[in-house]
Design a protein that fits this description.
The chain is about 75% helix and about 0% strand. The protein contains 12 helices and no strands. The longest helix is centred in the last third of the chain and has 31 residues. The chain is elongated, with a radius of gyration of 27 Å.
């Protein structure tokens, strides 16, 4: 038997387990977790899940070391390695499925994403081993092994309940809106008409809106849109504080309300991005009006959900009302300017 045929035979179990892990990964990413038939112990879930994650990381290390230098593992050893990695990957995915929707969709999504990343890493490691099994330890193999370790280590930073999960995603949304606002301010500071130093004010105004810079009327419209974007950031920050102070996961209703808040908050950042993109020259006023109206509607919907949620106590109503007024005021200002410019 030739060396190539022998190598192919040895790697059959590894190739088979690679296909199995890919199927498991795809089911985790696309599938639903189980509904809890009875009392669910969240702390026990995390304990067992962390053990499974640690075991999977160790299995990836063992597998990588077995192929770190010639000669290849024997056919029997390769079969044992394949069987072991499959067992631990299956255990990890099974434990993820234990987590029911009733513990929070936001939490479940974060755990699903983290589990999927581990499985992606294992698939990548297997593919690299299959593509170059006779080589010494390569940089690709080191990188992919480290990738599995990193994705496993991420579990230690995951939120432990749905309140913490909602706060986690809120922080990312706040950051995105802050970045969009800073981007707009920076663009305004850097952008100017290239002829502004040679034309007087009347000539500049007569030039109107050009494709490469903002006219004065554009800047006035943008300033009102920035008011809406600031209101978006304020809404997310105040919401995050309220969840931090008053959020509860003691009942199914409260957990569901936290998910509703996360869903409402998730819509804000993409709408802010749409508005910001429409503000770059050449400014199309009807598009700006449309995007501003969409963002305002999303903010009003979010504020309505906040009003009806357990996180909104009597002392929170003033800031909710203030933001509703700010959103409406800025939207009317945008509409007035955009209609006058169109």
């Amino acid at each position: 038997m030739s060396a190539n045929n022998s190598c192919t035979d040895v790697l059959v179990p590894l190739r088979n387990v690679s296909n199995v892990v890919k199927c498991i990964r795809d089911r985790v990413k696309d599938g639903e977790s189980n509904e809890s038939a009875g009392a669910f112990n969240l702390s026990n879930f995390w304990e067992v899940l962390n053990q499974a994650v640690k075991a999977t990381s160790q299995e990836a290390t063992t597998l990588s070391l077995a192929f770190s230098k010639p000669p290849l593992p024997s056919e029997e050893d390769c079969a044992k390695l394949a069987e072991s990695i499959q067992k631990h990957v299956l255990a990890l995915s099974t434990i993820y499925y234990w987590l029911p929707k009733s513990e929070g969709i936001t939490l479940r999504k974060l755990v699903r994403e983290a589990t999927g990343e581990v499985l992606d890493g294992v698939v990548q490691l297997l593919d690299i081993l299959l593509s170059s099994p006779l080589q010494s330890l390569s940089q690709e193999q080191l990188t992919s092994t480290g990738g599995v370790w990193a994705s496993c280590d991420r579990f230690a930073q995951l939120p432990r309940d749905n309140r913490a999960a909602v706060l986690h995603v809120m922080a990312s949304y706040i950051g995105m809106v802050k970045d969009a606002l800073e981007e707009m301010y920076q663009a305004l500071a850097e952008s100017q008409d290239p002829f502004s130093d040679v034309l007087d004010d009347d000539d500049l105004e007569a030039r109107g809106n050009q494709d490469t810079y903002w006219s004065e009327s554009d800047r006035q419209l943008i300033s009102k849109c920035l008011g809406l974007i600031k209101a978006s950031g304020a809404c997310l920050r105040k919401l995050s504080i309220a969840v931090q102070k008053n959020g509860k996961v003691d009942t199914a209703e409260n957990i569901t309300q936290l998910d509703d808040l996360a869903d409402a908050a998730r819509e804000i950042s993409p709408s802010v991005d749409d508005l910001v993109l429409s503000l770059y020259p050449p400014v199309d006023c009807p598009v700006v009006d449309q995007n501003a109206s969409k963002l305002a509607a999303i903010l009003m919907k979010a504020l309505q959900i906040i009003r009806s949620c357990h996180i909104c106590l009597e002392g929170d109503f003033p800031w909710v009302q203030f933001l509703e007024g700010a959103v409406d005021h800025n939207l009317q200002e945008v509409k007035s300017l955009s209609e006058g410019s169109s």
